[in-house]
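Late entry, FE2/S2 (inorganic) cluster complex.
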Amino acid sequence: MIGRRRVLVGCAACVAVGCAGQAGESAAAPAPSCDDGASVEGWVPLPLADYPALTKVGGWAEVDLPEHLLVVVVAQPEPGCFVAIWRVCTHGACEVDWDPASATAVCPCHGSVFAADGSVLVGPATEPVRAFPVVRRGDVLWLQR
Ligand code: FES
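Prediction complete; structure with ligand written out below:
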């Protein structure tokens, strides 16, 4: 099977879109191939057709892909800027929600707030949630696992 073992290759037609200062790793991360829909080692495709809220600035979506062991919140807080953070709060087992107004993730259980890079802004959580690089290629977001 070629899809999952494919060598990561950049493409002039592909433009990496990241968030300066937030998903800084995404700008330096290896780019998935341009073959949208094909999974590439370490990258998980998220077709925007499956997450239409992510096509809008301020939009966010829960991405629950057990086959990739992923439960994340993905958001577009600024035009062309995508962020992804682990959805499970580090204080307990509650799932955080994205707050578009503040561009933060908020835990409904005890009020912890996490920045787009996963860092703790407000406790009681003391540990950050993991953040994942996300880049856009055409109509597909690619999340680096
Ligand atoms: S479980 Fe999230 S703040 Fe307590």
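The two ends are 20 Å apart (CA to CA). Will revisit in the morning.
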